[in-house]
Amino acid sequence: MHELSIAQGVVDICQQHAGGRRVLAVTLEIGTLSGVVPEALEFCFEASTNGTILEGARLEIDRVAARGYCRACDLLSPIDSYFDPCTACGASPLEVRCGEELRVKELEVE
Ligand SMILES: [Zn+2]
User: Fold this and answer.
1) Ligand 1 center–CA 30 separation, angstroms
2) 44-80: pLDDT as tens digits
């Protein structure tokens, strides 16, 4: 499962940065175009943290809304997919400017 390898990657990153301290909470930034299903990730996170310094840590997910840039209008439009058009002129595809995020934003340690 895709989310399982992501969860394990998150655990690895947190372990590297926590300096052996217990991790209380992790905040992830996940774009709506990243293809990650938050519920699945939460489930995998719990499984991946068992027996690590992250065991019992709270997982918080910040969803980042995707936006596409239209060169012709010099405008950013909210988009739900890579093929959504510019809200002003209807051009598509737009240059994706955000929404593909998948990163550890914050780490709360003991
Ligand atoms: Zn446009």
Assistant:
1) 26
2) 999 999 999 999 999 999 999 999 999 999 999 999 9
CA 87 – ligand 1 centroid, Å: 7
- Domains of the chain are 2-65+98-109 (3.30.2320.50)
Is a pLDDT exceeding 80 seen at residue 1? no
**29 CA distance to ligand 1 middle (Å):** 28
CA–CA separation, 92 and 69 (whole Å): 10
Supply the pTM of this predicted model: 0.87
The torsion angle over the Cα atoms of residues 24, 30, 34 and 39, rounded to 10 degrees, is 60
